[in-house]
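A common beginner's mistake is to predict each chain separately and then try to dock the pieces by hand. The better habit, illustrated here, is to supply every component at once so that their relative placement is modeled jointly.
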Amino acid sequence: MTTANATAAVDRPSTRIAEVWDRLASVTDPELDESVTGLGFVTHVEVDAAGAVQIGFRLPTYWCAANFAFLMADDMRVAVAGLPWVTNVAIELADHMYAGEINRGVAAGRSFQDSFGAQASGELDGIRRTFMVKAFQRRQEALLTSLLEHGHEPARLVRMSVAELAGLPGDCASRRLVERYLERRTVVASGANAAAQANETAFVDARGALLDADGLGAYLRALRRVGVNAQFNSALCRGLLAARYGDAAAPQAGIEPVHFVSAGDWKETVEATRSGNASA
Amino acid sequence: MYRTKSGEDIFIIDGHVHLWDGSKANLKNVHGQQFIDCFYAYHSNLSPKEYLWPKEKFDNYGPEVMYDDLFVKGYDDMAICQPTYLTDFYKNGFNTTERNYEMKKRHPDRFIVNGAFDPRDGEAGLDYLDELSETYGIKGVKLYTAEWRGDSKGYKLSDPGAQKYLERCGKLGIKNIHVHKGPTILPLNLDAFDVADIDDAATNFQNLNFIVEHCGLPRLDDFCWIATQETNVYGGLAVVLPFIHSRPEYFAHVISELLFWIGEDKILYGSDYGIWSPKWLIEKFMAFELPESVSKETGVQLSLTAKKKILGLNAARLYGIDVEAQKKLLGGVRKAAAVGA
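With all components supplied together, the output reads:
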């Protein structure tokens, strides 16, 4: 834990509260790949003069998966503890079947396994990776679809390097999608850091294999399920949160439903998708 | 029965209904309260305003109201009762085969009553399954793999214990295995909604049909994949269908994915009554057309033929219902039923 910085603006708690909210916005619900603040999960942030932070959060149902709840709580703790003036972070999950275990475990800095004992049989690395891969697939599908719509050739796209992708013209409408994609591409990267990854092929499947330009339509068609699923879940979660805590509880401005590829001939790809192992 | 504008009658089998008791008197603990409250949140979130129930009615509506909502106000012709025991949460259970059977005794031609098993019950549970088969002649079971039982917070169909039960189902002619995929399956560090065990069971038991309720939500993506691989895996539309009101664009995308990946012969309508009511679900589904942008780009249609299969013919096939004979049997009652706009 970082010690309090004497020069920090102790008399400006609202600045510190804003800094905490800003950090929290970078924490995602791993399943929905959306920010915990955007989802309306964080209820309040308090900061005291000594740099201790209190964060309240809630979930759409009493039964929401304990592992995701733990991941979010722990990610929030880590994200906020990174602020230089923070001396302590207390996370309080409310109205959840495992609130006690999660709050105590995160407060003590215990791992998931230690917090749950016999009910778990390991840590959350596996599940975290599963959902990082899904987020990667969803972001990749959105980016590739956008690039195709902007006239990029499939043959060129599948050979593009990370550096080339990152260097696409700044006025490109896909800029935000590129950033979001590269953020999650680390899940399939071989190189240890950005410099080492620059020359890697930008678009690979979840196993790291190169994509085939001719089969790109079918590949995207299969990936689209991941996005449809996540958006449907997101709508359900937002709705349940609103039903549980009142209509004002959950920001309802979700992402628009995934659009279907307008370019590409789906008819030729249907059989290829169905017979081939299109699932990544 | 729903009658189209052109005068065609659509035979409707509701694949997923409950007669539950979530009243205060039946509660064992806070979990039971939270369970019915969570159901009510689904109800309030996705129902049209004019169909919202007061909580007291929702907690325990009873058989008369149920009959009225399904067959008099609603368009169902038949309904399949899917039990959810939850004996750790409710004194007399939440929604048991025994209680559901009261409905069938009153209206034998209207109801199909399914049983349930829990592999954690061991040999005694197998005996109970025999008894359910003998007493009620069940053709299907509803499995709630996330049900709490003492220290255990759920099981998987791939567990060795579950295999014995599926074998017994095959022997007893219980061919339809409805599986609710839900949260809190131990160990907690794994994906609680993983549908991979369905894949495993469907491969090992080709003689049984696996109907994945709620289409595997929140793992629709994984479900579509396994259902494409296995010929005996079906998707039940409960929870998915109500989106047709509040989020029709999402419903359009999801139903088109389902039609694309698993096809119109493998999708079953279910209202999940009392969470939602057949009247508005059927009216909206019959009126629903896939947006042209969606059908053009995915190449699937939600045709009248597809709707008929989803609303009744698929379930009739799985449960051996002769639709024409059943229509005659219900003929007298049908006159009293509401007729679609």
